[in-house]
Amino acid sequence: RAKAGGRSRFDFYTEDLTRSARLRVETERRLRCALADGQLVAHYQPQVEIATGRVVGVEALVRWRDPQRGLIPPGEFIPLAEETGLIGALGDWVLHEACRQGVLWMEVGIAPLVVAVNLSAHQLRQGDIVESVARVLRQTGFPAERLELELTESALMEREGDTVGVLDRLREQGIMMAVDDFGTGYSSFAYLRRFHLDVLKIDKRFIDEIDQQPDARTIVDAIIAMGHALGLKVLAEGVETQAQLDILRTQGCDLFQGYLRSRPLEPDAVTSLLRTDGRGRSLVLRVATEDR
Ligand code: C2E
Ligand code: MG
Ligand code: MG
Ligand code: MG
């Protein structure tokens, strides 16, 4: 209770709360403008086939190019976008942008290439996700067979029954489905069977320890074996060292993403990477336009 003549802890607490609430409202407003003003950009991280070393796909990763603050990573605004529902419009934008870019790559003869796009739980909850994905494919002319949608374990589990149906309707169109950050959530082997998926992405935290911790190595081994038993391709996220890649290769992992090969790149840098890809992999470990 406020003491007469003094300021109580409660007063400070409300002040703090007001300040952080105001900051949130302000950030939300700026993010809404960023979306409308074209300040969002998509970068693309190559997905590499381990057996051949070839880039077979890219994952679209959104960034906010703020005139004052520079390039802002998604970790700093996706959670807010999710809480405020702005993720619906933002997610639509990324999907449309990635498919549009995918068509541009096809037009310059870069193929075959899978484009992966992250979906949030909120987008899945919206109900019209199947229609809105179909609309984007129609509008851009990007082939459904080249689109992959990534969902985290927790997004999949949230409304399990409905989600199974949504995923099946997306897959009926030819779209591939991936489970992202595998191993960080429920990791229930049973749910992997219920959802009809195409790709299992092992979370970076296991890959980080794979060459140090026998346990991590055993877990990754088990995930790969289980993924393969269920007919899925397995991708390792966040591969940074040759040692990690060598282990993954002996374990029979299919694909990887990571700084070892490339950071997420601007579209033009992806184009040059893909142009040189057939001639060997030495050229593009680091590209000038990569994320700073
Ligand atoms: P994610 O989908 O698991 O994406 C992988 C993240 O790991 C990316 O971070 C990527 O830049 C980073 N990464 C890849 N290889 C390496 C590596 O070798 N070392 C390290 N240290 N990091 C690596 P980013 O771009 O900051 O994205 C973070 C997360 O933000 C994504 O995790 C995804 O959950 C979310 N996100 C990004 N774009 C979108 C989007 O368009 N929609 C939604 N809903 N979420 C998005
Ligand atoms: Mg992802
Ligand atoms: Mg991931
Ligand atoms: Mg992640």
UniProtKB/TrEMBL annotation:
Coverage span on the entire protein: 822 to 1113 of 1116
Organism whose genome encodes this protein: Thiocapsa roseopersicina
Keywords, comma-separated and alphabetical: c-di-GMP, Membrane, Transmembrane, Transmembrane helix
Entry keyword annotation includes ATP-binding: no
An MF annotation (GO) of this entry: cyclic-guanylate-specific phosphodiesterase activity
Protein name as annotated: cyclic-guanylate-specific phosphodiesterase
Domain EAL: 24-278
GO BP term, example: cellular response to nitric oxide
